Amino acid sequence: MTKSKLSTWLLMLPSTGMLALLVVAPLAVLVFASLIQGNNLALDAALSLGNYATILEKGLFFPLMGKSLAMAGSVTAACILLAYPTAYGLAKCVGEKHRNLLVVLIIIPFFTSQLLLIYSMMVLLQANGPVMSLLGLFGRNASTSILYTNFAVFLILLYEFLPYMVLCLYSSMCKIEDNQLYAAQVMGAGKARRFLDVIFPLSSPGLLSGIIIVFVPAAGSFVEANLAGGTNGMLIGSYIDTNFSVSLNIGRGCALCVLFLLVLCVITLIINAVIRGVAGRRL
Amino acid sequence: MADLKIVDVRKSYGKKEVLKGVSLTAGTGEFLALLGPSGCGKTTLLNTISGIVRQDAGQVLVDGRDISRSPIEKRNIGVVFQNYALFAHMNVFENVAYPLRLKKVPKAELQQRVGQALETVRLDGYAPRRIAQLSGGEQQRVALARAIVYRPDILLLDEPLSALDRKIREQMQIEVRRIQREIGITTVFVTHDQGEALSMADRVLLMHGGQIIEDNTPAEVYLHPKSAFAADFIGASNVLEGRYEHGRVNAGGLALPVGEQAVSDGARVRALIKEENLALLPPGQGDLSARIQDKLFLGQSIRITLRCGERILFALIPAREAEPLTVGSDVDLRVMGASVFAL
Fold first, then answer.
1. Which spans are transmembrane here (chain B) (predicted)?
2. % of chain A exceeding 70 in pLDDT
3. Size of interface A-B (CB pairs under 8 A)
4. Which of A38 and B77 is assigned the larger pLDDT?
5. Average per-residue pLDDT in chain B?
6. What is residue B259's predicted lDDT score, i.e. its pLDDT?
7. Residues A123/A129/A131/A133 CA torsion (nearest 10 deg)
8. Residue A283 has what pLDDT?
9. What percent of chain A has pLDDT over 90?
10. Are A282 and B99 in contact (CB < 8 Å)?
């Protein structure tokens, strides 16, 4: 090994060490803990697949996982629909003078704690609250509310994750030259074709990272569901949380985490392949 | 193929008037160069033809048909952008095929026309390449092929060669001219490079301050400019201000014989003498004497700095002729041609 190679390794040591310590090691502990029974977290504990068998027997995992995926999927889809025009407007229609201010306005929710965001949304949505009172003007009963339904959870998640999607799409759209859009237009491309043939393929890297940044945490979310989801609001995240905080069954909680992680890995790979396939169909 | 007519086009950005009533015509198959310093409005004028810029007033007519109100995508105009604006996510073939796909050209015809366009720009065999694999000159050719493949009425070129190395640029000047002649398309070319405009165009339109101030063949624009700005902008000139009297310009103790000019005696004038129009002769044989102060080697020619009384003049002479002239020696000057404008 030459000297420069050695120094490269030394330079990489802190980051590699961090990764090993904070990602690989906890994952190993997670897998290990998923193989123990109850809370007997000792090195000489008897290992078995018992937790996994119980989970599959109980039959709660797949319905809740499915519900979480559906929730995360619809939140992601709504984010994409809302964020595309916003990001396009920011990157291509707004003058440079106002652009930074508008981006800051989009980032502002990040400065507030997540719990505060959820509670303020609940205040807005509650019976006789501002939203319901406004709807009351149009003949809806203002003393009822969509709060404590799955739709309320959807709205809160959408509100929380929309800025991430906007920023991801915005940054990749800024890289599209105006002249590329003009070139397409001069050659005869109308609005729809310009979007499909130029904007979409050239912003697909941003779309991909946006989807992953929104979908993965939304699928694992549980605070929103616990606070605003009502009695039928349980998601896979809530189920995992219950095993740690209520029934104190660490082994089963960890097994649930491992299963959840595997499902998300598979889904991320599928999303990646689909986006690349769609955007790159003309390559 | 079509002719182009622009009638009294005006455009302002806020209080700044960029186009102050510009009119021009281009016959079918003609090659026009819009030449001017940056900020003269030449690109804005070009963009009003494609529709990227909407003019405040005036008309753009293609074959007598007013397209001023048509949307960009309906104008059937080909544009080569300064930075090419190719689609990096498509290969060479798909870039060139794109306008034909928009027009739903049948597959066999599409293949044949893309092949033909690539052949015209001498890129046969490049169809499957990715844009990122091409050099600047090759990207330029793809952009050109893409702009002509759908047979637009007018071809617009917005400083297409300015990003290229000198040698490739000179090659591409010849290529663009050849392709333009071959397909006979009416072309408007924007450039700030006077050499490019003079060598490529049928007609040079010199723009200054949002107006066309000169519209003539390259030779006429160069040899007989109609304004002091044109005389100064095209080619390097000695500029002298003084009084015109009997075929001479008296400026700062210097009496330069400039020949009979169409200005009245005693008028204040600006005289412009192109550097190559100042001939150096042995002492006693010319009209006024000067001393060589410096020689600047430019390759095929030499720029000589001359002290003539209080004045500094520049002369451009072929390198071979400059060899015997040494710094510090005395020479005589003769003015071989001058442009004189009343002030």
1. none
2. 98
3. 66
4. B77
5. 91
6. 80
7. 180
8. 41
9. 62
10. no
Q: Structural domains in chain B?
A: 4-228 (3.40.50.300), 236-342 (2.40.50.100)
Per-residue confidence (pLDDT) for residue B311, from 0 to 100? 84
Mean pLDDT in residue range A246-260:
92
SS3 letters for chain A? CCHHHHHHHHHHHHHHHHHHHHHHHHHHHHHHHHCCCCCCCCCCCCCCCHHHHHHHHHCCHHHHHHHHHHHHHHHHHHHHHHHHHHHHHHHHHCCHHHHHHHHHHHHHHHHCCHHHHHHHHHHHHCCCCHHHHHHHCCCCCCCCCCCCCHHHHHHHHHHHHHHHHHHHHHHHHCCCCHHHHHHHHHCCCCHHHHHHHHHHHHHHHHHHHHHHHHHHHHHCCCHHHHHHCCCCCCCHHHHHHHHHHCCCCHHHHHHHHHHHHHHHHHHHHHHHHHHHHHHCCCC
Residue A222 has pLDDT above 50, yes or no: yes
Q: Which residues of A touch B86 (CB under 8 A)?
A: 180, 183
With an 8 Å Cβ cutoff, are A188 and B89 in contact?
no
* ipTM surpasses cut 0.95: no
pLDDT of residue A282: 45
Q: Do B75 and A186 touch (CB under 8 A)?
A: yes
The whole-number average pLDDT for the span B3-17 is 94
Q: By the CB < 8 Å criterion, does A283 face chain B?
A: yes
Question: Measured between beta carbons, which residues in chain B are less than 8 angstroms from residue A182?
Answer: 50, 52, 72, 79, 81, 85
| E-state strands within B63-101 | 65-66, 77-80
Q: Do B87 and A180 touch (CB under 8 A)?
A: yes
Contacts of A197 in chain B (CB under 8 A): 87, 98
A192 touches chain B (CB under 8 A): no
pTM as predicted? 0.82
State the best of B62, B98, B105, B190 to mutate against chain A, taking most chain A CBs within 10 Å: B98
pLDDT score of B298 more than 50: yes
Chain A nearest CA to B129, separation (Å): 10
- Stronger pLDDT, B24 or B261, i.e. the higher one: B24
